Structure formats: C-alpha cells, structure tokens
Amino acid sequence: MFYRPYGKTGKMISALAAGGMRYSEPEKIDEMAQIPLAAARAGVNYFDTAPGYSNDKSELILGAALKQMKKEGLTAYTATKTWASDEKTVMQHFESSLKRFGTDKIDFYHAWGVNDPKNFEERKKLGAIKALQTLKEQGLVGHVVCSTHMEGEDISRLCDAGIFEGILVGFCAINFPFRMAGLRGANRNSMGVVTMNPLGGGMITDHEKRFSFIKTRPGQSILEAALHFNLAHSEITAVLVGFRSVEDVRTAVAAVESFQPVADSEMDRIKDGITKNFNELCTTCNYCDKCPQGIPVVRYMEAYNHYLLYGKPGNITDRLKWHWGIQDLSRLEDCTECRLCEEKCNQKLPILERYKEMKRMAGSKAVK
Asked: Domain 3-268 belongs to what architecture?
C-alpha cells in the first residue's frame, strides 16, 4: 500500500480508504469486523462510516474491528459523520459514534451532506459548525471535514470558507467535469480529498465494454482503470471503496497497489473519450447550469443515465433520492421550455424530451 498526505493535517493516508456502507451481513457484528481488520492488515489506515450505514450497524462493526487493530498495533484513522444542523444534535451524534467506536476521539468528523450553499449557511447559523470546531478544540475530534454532492464551483467556494480541512466528494470517470473545480479549490486550500463512488455507483464495472476506453495499459481490469483514473489526479488523497467481504478487500487492495502514474496524454485521451463514447449519456459537464427557473438540470440528466444503462425507470427516482437528495420530480413542473439548457448542452441532448419521459414513467403527475 502507498500513502499520500491528507492536506496539511500531517497525516499520511492510505491511497485506498475503507468504506463501511456495503457489509453483506451487518447483523453479524464480529464476523463483519473481519473485513475492516483485513483491510488494516493490508495497510489501509482510513476507515469511513456513518450512522445508519449497513442497517445502522457499520459504526459498531468498525468499533469491534478497532479493538483488534489496537491489539495488533495497526494504524486506524476513524472517519464518521453528522447530518445535524444544530449544536445540541451534533453533540448527541458525536457521543453516540464515540461510544460505538470505543475510542476517546474521532479522527475525521464530517459535516455530512453539505449539498447546497443554503444548507452550509444554516449549519453555521444554527451552531453545527461551531460544535464541530469546539470538539476539535477539546481534542475530541482530530479534523473537521465535510462530505458534499455539490457542483464543482460550489465546492470550491466551500473550500475557500476556511472551515474544513478536507472533503469527501463523489468523483469518477463519468462525472469528473462536474467536480474538477471543487478538487482544484481543495488543492488551492491545501485540503485533503477522499473520493467516493469511484465506480459511478457500479455503472463503470457493470458496463465494461462501454467504459473500456478508460483503460491505460494491456491487462488492466476495468476496476483498476476506474480507481487509477481517480488516483491519477494529484489533488486526490485517497479513493474510497465499500467492502462487502474480505475478498472485496483483497481485490481492491490489489487494484490500488497496481497503480502506475498515468501520462498527461493518456488522461487527455480518456477525457476526450468521455464525450466521444457517451453519445446519449450526460457527462455532467454542467454547461446547462443556468436554468432561469433554478432547475438543477445536470442532476436530473445524471439520474437519467442510470435509466439508459439499466433500463429500469426506478433507477431515476432512486438516484435522485439517494444520491442527490431530490425526493420527487415536482421541480420539472417549473420548466418553461425555454430550451436554454439544450442550447448550452455540449452533447445536444434532448433534455426536454427526457423531462417528459421521466414524468411519463413516474405517472401523469410528478410524484411525491
């Protein structure tokens, strides 16, 4: 395993970070604890989780693993999250997570899901940010960080606020144009960057033929190619992979350890291929961003990708709800059909037709 500096924290983080969302049998705490333990023995030292993950057992699983890691002298940096906006609830969440871990501090504590600027301002106003800073001042939290699904420019501004020491952000060969400004903002502020969803929610590995152009050398698997695409960006500290089993750990470790520097010319080829190979897929370049009605066009089009690739209408609403926090299609009713989004779209996608198709599949009215 190799390691990279997490911003200016002084910590060296394994290039592979262990995610705690995908345990196959989360009710079996001790059995599942063997998964993060196997990762630690392989050199992984960053363990990401959150309340609610894996039937709300993920923090308990990591806590069980941490006991054995301590006995074996293994390095383990804990990372968990709070969605709270107010100071009191942040403290409650923190105490719960700390108890589950069985530790005396949390190394990386995330303001979870800072997904729009208004939410960030609300957390400052209601005391959540102050609570996180207080926990750090008391030595109970090592580093105050955040997770976000915002667009790149919004992430960049978030980084410039000077509050967080690092970010957790979705990044892969499909959506990188949507997030690059955020990575540059983090780098400009000497922040650590951990990337989640490096496989595009499984889209890349599920459709190897379509995404084969991201491979950079003979014999490279599609999993390796997807992870290496992330690691080829110097702004990225570590790539986060969720493990279902010990075998998943072994596969991911081998994939990351096979990383070799990627030439700029190869990265340019891959990025050119995003447009050339995605004739009907949204590449999340975000040029459609300026909808007069404030409709987050790119989020709906990115969710439509999942329908195109998997063929199930439910993939759209599931993606909107669980990835983007959009609970229904009601915003599409605000569309005036001015077609500015289609004029700005580099790929000339039929955005308005897709709006109609999405609403048709959901029913005669936008569902709630």
From this structure: Alpha-Beta Barrel (3.20)
